[in-house]
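Quick one - first record:
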Amino acid sequence: MRNRAVQIPMLAILVLSLSGVAGCNPSPPRKGKIVGSSMSPTLRGAHYAVDCLGCGIQFSCDPEQADERATLICPNCGSTAERDRWKMTAADPVSVLPDSKIRRWDIIAFERDRSTGTTPNYELMTKRVVGLPGESIEFENGNVFANQVLISKPFEIQKQMRILVCDSKFQSAPSLNWPLTPENRWEFNNGQFQMRTPPIPGKFAWLDFDYQKNYFQTEASTGSPALEDFYGYNQSLSRKLNRMDEVFVELNIRLNGGTLGWRFGNQTELYEFRINEALSEIQILVGEPNGTPNALLHRANISAALNDVQQKPVQIEFSSFDRVLRVAVNGTELWTYPLDPAGVPITQTILSFGGNSDVVKIDRIRIWRDLYYFDADAAKPPQKRAIAGFFVIGDNVPLSHDSRHWKQPGVAIESVKGKVIFQ
């Protein structure tokens, strides 16, 4: 069992409380450091930092798992890294903020009851709150349901929890993620995607994203390509991976008067997004995955978000986390669209990027995935748990030992010593 804890000096935990004392100043934060891997990669204990020779990115790994291997695999490009590229790195520093109001998605430091295994008095367990006192919690297709309602993470929390899948900035040569062909007209030069020749008038030239399984596998996946809930941090953890289509995409683009498009979907539905700089407009269409989306779902003027971007990079953020589609341009959230909360088991993840003119250039594409939540025993039907305290899970879902495993799953309010804050 590997639990993550916050190590706090003996004197620093003497007067930590949630309630505070009337008439007294708030207690100051208590500094500590992370031990273990159950909150990785958000919060890491001592770990290997690995510099990839293939693409130049730096990734991190659990040392216990890495030491079982002669080489590690870069989750961004699939290159192998020998031991001389591994650097032992100190644990992430954190602080515990007492007297904090605890909300869903906060990371908390807490003690466990002695009957279930108390940590020493200089250590506090650290997990993320996904369920609140009095709620009934269950998981379906990787998502959290509280009282049978799907819980959606705010944009800022998504950015804190997302797991990197691909970053084009660190792929200086064309990679298998981006099949560049004469037919799709796209090329990759000096770290930038651009078209060799203009598309047919009135048409878009599309560049597909091909998901690459850059990890050690105990069994080969079959069927159409779909994202899977692999953690590059867990290089030696053997388990069945879950397919998913919940992504967070960040594009840095130059419109130059043209129109950018991107497509997202799975085996049942396909959405197409278009941002037209000349009209300062966004259009969103929907259709079948094997066709061209043509049913208009949304149209809006976005001149305030674009705000004089000619010749300047535009940042576009798109998310499908928690079965909710979200679009933001230059930090302004423009559109939110809840999908069917039940969803379907995923066999295919569709991501494409395109333009209607060769003036459109893409400086950088980054793709992350959501966490995929599942029960301690995935072979059993989904469990519904009514909890008396906080329901907590580590961000390293397949490795964390947490409320899913404990006989008494709830963390009592009086056991919480504060909210964990970090940079």
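second record:
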Amino acid sequence: MSLMSTLNMSTNAMGVHQNVISIVSNNISNMNTEGYHKQKANLGTLVLGIPINNSVNTQVKTSAGVEMINVERYTTTFIGSYYRDQLTNQSYLNQKADGMQDIADMFDELSGRGLDTALDDFYKALDNLNQYPSDMSARVNFLDSASTLTNSMNLISNNLDKIKTKSVGDGVSQKSLENSDLYAQVTSINDLLSQIKDVNKMLITSQGGTLDNNNLLDRRDTLINQLAQLGNFTIDTQANGTVNVSLQGTRLVGGAEVLGTFDVQTASSYDDYCKRNGIDNTNECNAVLMIKKSNGTIIQNANKKFSSGTIGGIIEGATSVEGVTINSVQNSLNTLAKSIANVFNELQTREGAFYIETVNGENKLSNTDLDKYTIFVTNDNDSLLDNINLDEIKNCAQKAGELNLTNDDIKYGLTYGRSVIADYVA
């Protein structure tokens, strides 16, 4: 080997190791870069393309020093898959936790202004009226507390509806749907699928083991990790680094092609579709996801394909009646409201209950049409309390009471016994 060959070999070696140092520096620089994987240089002996004889001298002459064979990413398929699964589950739980927090904030119990306080005040006022049925302040205080209770329940119900509308729309209006959280997430999914397709296309023509190829793989992993946060997508990695994306058996990305995109429709639109096609509509959500495939077919209801991720959490939070969800809280609130209304209205209109009726200018006790004089009024669904029926409620009394009524009795109302509640004429 000549002196010049030795110097060239040394120069080449310095260049190779300079590149190794550059890769190490790049690793350090990107230690906090999202999606970046540490890389290392794999080195090997550089051999000239000359036939090697058994002669050692000949073999030495063909050696040209060191070369960089490739740049390797530190990653494994198992760890990547496991990490995505955890991202999906974490996003699902975070979404449910956020929904629970919204509900907790709405009830506002810690401030002392929530439903628990309204119920406590209501029962205290009722107990006071029970002890002092003829006391005017006790009657007024009871009616005020009952009005506060119904207003509190109605406010909570309205706020629950607002939370649901913000989450999945109101089920009718396209505008409310487009302003919903679900609609925004669907837009994000379609954007990610398109970007994954673009990266796949570049990976197909990229040379493996290069910095450019590794950067594309980092970009690919970042995109599929973001997608994993939104739903329980299946990722199938190919030998060339491209990925196929599926959801519960429906292929969405295959190589350099998007095979399916998402859209979302209102519950009302989906119901119309079911009626037109004679399909039994089992949908319980205000919004219905669709998958539009590249071959022209459409999956009209893909809600149940999402069992996890942010979208799975949104759909479950808006439809499930288990745990602390919008529907479960609404059902509990409605049950409580209906129970209160039934108990008090039954007492008010039970057999033997009377109210004051003016006939020919005279005030008399009557028990006709008692169902018109209920303390609480429910809505069309007969489940949620409306406001107190101040316009229709008349002064009532139990039949066993006195019939000699004073003008103040007639004006402000009265109650006899411990179970029939009186209202005043405003």
